[in-house]
Amino acid sequence: MSHVAQHAPSGHPASLARTRSRQSGSLAPCAPVRGAFALWVTAVAAGVFETVLAVARMVGDGSGSGGEIAIGLAIRLPVFAAALLIALRMRSGRAWARITLTLALGVAGTASMVVQPIRALVQGRSLGAAFEEAGAMDIAFGASRALHVAAVLTAVVLMFLPTANAYFRAHRADRASAATRETGPGRSHVG
């Protein structure tokens, strides 16, 4: 996709945020926002992989009934879909999506992923013992979980870098300018 920079000094965050797509005329996401989006997709993919492993374990060892598995999937699958949809809105410059991803997945989601391992450590379980007892599925799950957490935390950082902040501000200004053009100066749009 070709890009053309708008009127700001080269290398300045505003010039990066105001890069427009020649094809659509809309603001193109800056590198940190594109990277954050890719990491949100990675986090969701890791979550799906972890869910597959958990279901396989429950089916394999008989620890979960069909109903328990169905309830777990009924909760997780909409969360995965919502995360992707909100990440798409974040990539298109919606600040509310950036905040939602940060609070819902960056804070609450990360906490839900690390509580169990932290609780085990607090109760005296060592990492060495966990690795000694781990099977292939446990190691795959742990590696996926580590990737998942790293992707979420890195995505949150990228979404708040100066260039990303400029991108979200520029998007807000563009929407305000478009609303003014639609309604005329001094008039509000009531829809």
Q: If you compute it from the alpha carbons, what radius of gyration comes out, rounded to the nearest whole angstrom?
A: 21 Å
Q: Low-confidence spans: pLDDT under 50, at least 5 residues?
A: 1-11, 13-18
Number of helices: 7
Q: What series of H and E elements makes up the topology?
A: EHEHHHHHH
Kindly report the spatial arrangement of strands forming the biggest sheet. Answer: 1-2
Estimated share of beta-strand residues:
under 5%
User: Percent range for helical residues?
Assistant: over 70%
The assigned structural class equals mainly alpha
Global outline: elongated
Number of domains: 1
Distance between the termini: 34 Å
Q: Give average pLDDT, whole number.
A: 85
Give the biggest beta sheet. Answer: 2 strands, antiparallel
Report the strand count: 2
What does this structure look like?
The protein has helices spanning 13-17, 31-61, 66-91, 95-122, 127-133, 136-159, 162-183; strands at residues 3-4, 20-21. It is elongated, with a radius of gyration of 21 Å. 75% of the residues lie in helices and 2% in strands. The protein has a two-stranded antiparallel sheet. The longest helix is centred in the first third of the chain and has 31 residues, at 31-61. The chain has one domain (28-168). With 191 residues, the protein is an all-alpha fold. The chain crosses the membrane at residues 27-49, 69-88, 95-115, 146-168. Residues 1-21 are annotated as: Disordered. Keywords: Membrane, Transmembrane, Transmembrane helix.
